[in-house]
Design brief:
2 helices; Jelly Rolls; globular; 5-stranded antiparallel sheet
């Protein structure tokens, strides 16, 4: 936990890790989850939020992704802890680059277009939330890369045979089958 808001670009260009400040006492805690003016002053790219999405995950080991939807995301958790994974699917020398880190209420991540996002719950009753700059619709098309593709080398804390996944996510393409995304 930190006592100062911080924004850092990661090894994947345009993907930022954000340290959030939790103000706590015997009742619990409060945080400014997204504060446009302060975060942009620290280097976070500008984006217009049009929708806020939540995903509730009751069990440990829920594993979702890896999706590169056609929007920018600001990801955090309201409660719990997840292991996050990101894969750069943009055309260029960074194609296939992977980043992983844990997200807690004190940590957020800004994900640019063309970077696939996935996560695995490490605690029960996790509420995962993300702000986006485009509206979701049933017709939305996106690129998905297989969570367990050995070429990615992601060391998921909970193994594939213990993970709770959807058939759709497990059927995502392997990295070698994906056409790089032009953004």
């Amino acid at each position: 936990m930190t006592d100062r808001l911080a924004v850092r670009e990661t090894a994947i260009p345009g993907l930022f890790e954000i340290d959030l400040v939790l103000h706590g006492d015997s009742r619990g805690w409060f945080k400014e989850n997204y504060q446009k003016q302060k975060m942009e002053a620290l280097g976070l790219p500008k984006f217009e939020v049009v929708q806020n999405n939540f995903s509730f995950n009751a069990d440990v080991g829920v594993t979702r992704g890896l999706h590169a939807e056609p929007w920018v995301k600001f990801i955090s958790v309201a409660n719990g802890k997840v292991f996050g994974a990101w894969v750069d699917l943009r055309a260029g020398s960074g194609f296939g680059k992977v980043l992983t880190l844990e997200i807690t209420p004190a940590k957020a991540v800004f994900v640019p277009l063309g970077v696939a996002n996935g996560y695995q719950t490490l605690e029960p009753n996790v509420t995962y939330t993300y702000l986006v700059n485009e509206h979701w619709s049933l017709e939305t098309k996106y690129v998905g890369v297989n969570l367990f593709d050995p070429a990615l080398g992601i060391q998921w804390p909970i193994s594939k045979d213990q993970a709770i996944t959807s058939e759709k996510d497990v059927a995502n393409s392997m990295l070698k089958e994906i056409q790089p995304i032009e953004v």
